[in-house]
Amino acid sequence: MFFEGSEKKAEILVDASKLNLLTDINDQFWSEFVECCHAKILSSISNAHCKAFLLSESSLFVWQDRLLILTCGETQLVNSVTHFIEQKGTDAIVHFIYQRKNEYFAQAQPSCFGDDIKLLSQYLPGKAYRFGEMDSHHNYVFHLDNDFKAETEDKTYELLAYQISDLASKKLTEPNLSTLEIRNYLAIDTLLPGFDIDDFVFEPYGYSLNAIKGEQYLTIHVTPQADSSYISFESNLNLIRLAPTILAILSPRSFDLMSFNEHDFEALLADHIDSSYISKSLVNEQLSNGYEVSFANFIRPQTQFSKPVELDISGDNYAL
Description:
Elements: E1 8-14, H1 27-35, E2 41-46, E3 50-55, E4 58-63, E5 66-71, H2 77-88, E6 93-101, H3 113-120, E7 126-132, E8 138-144, E9 156-162, H4 166-172, H5 179-185, H6 188-191, E10 196-201, E11 207-213, E12 216-223, E13 230-235, H7 239-250, E14 254-260, H8 265-272, E15 278-286, E16 292-299
Helix pairs in contact: 7-8
């Protein structure tokens, strides 16, 4: 069974004095917002600073002055963004960022990054970048081109793990796994002490977790199937410092790290990434919106030849 775990991501920043996303918008709107990209809300948790919605395809986080939504599978996240703009206008929007990474089977997606930004550009003028090599892991970023300048301490991190170890894949595809068993296996109590947790185990495979503590958040999405395994971590916690624990558990063949405004990116990589991994790509750019964006792709060199995979020619065309 194949599932495209790679996420699309959008972040909308607003002037909360004009539109407070926590108090001026009800849950019915967020439900409609999510449904526009062909996902649905499964559950939610909240505190005084943030409301976190667990989705059928990834997550939505809402603060007073910003929202962050990630969706995977064959969702069309761009449709949720345009719905928000059409319903709430652009007067309160301070800034906007849209991201999309390379997929396992891009041809199965209903749109590509180019299609998405052509649509978004009808509403918001912007600039687009590619971080990483075209023939390897890469991440596209589109942002609103205005006079916005990000605060230096506005930091976020992404860790994206591919081809996790056979041991991790077998554990995370065991039948009848509970949320507690997966939390224990992923060392959630160690990674996230004191956080409120909302998580869900999908059938037959897959796991999602939202965690919040004050204004801090972390979300994890697990696609554990051996032929297309992918696990993502997104947070305003420093995931580079947490990487040793994560990598020791998952032992992926490759992973990406991406950060917004982590000015010590390279030094942190040197301190926290195991020497068994080598850097295949390292990109850094100061964007006109004030964000310093850094991207690195790491691989673990293989010492044995892999075997060819026999394909089911009667199966889905996207897998051929």
